[in-house]
Specification:
Blueprint (H helix, E strand, L loop, with lengths): L1 E6 L4 H11 L6 E7 L5 H8 L4 E3 L8 H14 L4 E4 L8 H6 L4 E5 L11 H7 L4 E8 L9 E8 L6 H24 L3 E4 L2 E4 L2 E2 L1
Parallel strand pairs: 1-2, 1-4, 2-3, 4-5
Antiparallel strand pairs: 5-6, 6-7, 8-9, 9-10
Helix pairs in contact: 1-6
Bound molecules: 5-O-phosphono-beta-D-ribofuranosylamine.
Length: about 200
């Protein structure tokens, strides 16, 4: 089974996936990494792991549709079973999302459906929440709104700032993302018209 990972930045979730693959705990291999930014540190992580890394600078495309069409070409060249968004900071067109329906995952730093969108850690602190976390979900054309697969919760501590909280949430992201990817790669996880199933049971 083959995975393509899309990134824009640090790529610590990518690293968690690379580490899992190297320990035979991903159910397959990472066929390629694609970034929309040439300065993403995740590209270094990919190259260090011997994984083909492709840069597609989004500002070189005249529209979202043109960028996504180029992205599809690169992805399909690697014939992945699954595509994982890992800190990929671009909104994808419905054409892209529909093309990969049921085989496109995202990780989001909040307990969805709460705190969709950006700056989740800052907003959680501003609201005085006591609990926060991360969610892995199938991607649909509703932003951060697709069917949930797995979540991990953390306590918000009194002395947390956004950086400390983000770091604590990231440690959980690094556990749940490789886990969800492995479920999919092993054929245990499906999205059907009736929802998400793990080992044939509704989640
Ligand atoms: C993570 O918090 C992820 O949930 C969000 O963007 C961040 C990416 O971090 N979508 P990294 O690039 O994987 O380190």
């Amino acid at each position: 089974r083959r995975l393509v990972v899309l990134i824009s930045g640090s790529g610590s979730n990518l690293q968690a996936l690379i580490d899992a693959a190297e320990h035979d705990e991903l159910g397959g291999e990472i066929a390629a990494v694609v970034s929309n930014r040439g300065d993403a540190y995740g590209l270094v992580r990919a190259r260090d792991a011997g994984i083909p890394a492709v840069v597609l600078p989004h500002h070189e495309y005249e529209s979202r549709e043109a960028f996504d069409a180029a992205l599809v070409k690169v992805i399909d060249r690697h014939a992945p079973d699954l595509i994982a968004l890992a800190g990929f900071m671009r909104i994808l067109t419905p054409a892209f999302v529909n093309r990969y329906h049921g085989r496109l995952l995202n990780i989001h730093p909040s307990l969805l459906p709460d705190y969709r969108g950006l700056n989740t850690h800052r907003r959680v602190l501003a609201d005085g929440e006591r609990e926060h976390g991360a969610s892995v979900h199938f991607v649909t054309d509703e932003l951060d709104g697709g069917p949930l697969i797995v979540q991990a919760a953390v306590h918000v501590e009194d002395d947390d700032d956004a950086e400390r909280l983000a770091a604590r949430v990231l440690t959980r992201e690094h556990l749940i993302y490789p886990m969800a990817v492995r479920w999919f790669m092993e054929g245990r996880l499906q999205l059907s018209h009736s929802g998400v199933r793990l080992d044939g049971q509704p989640l």
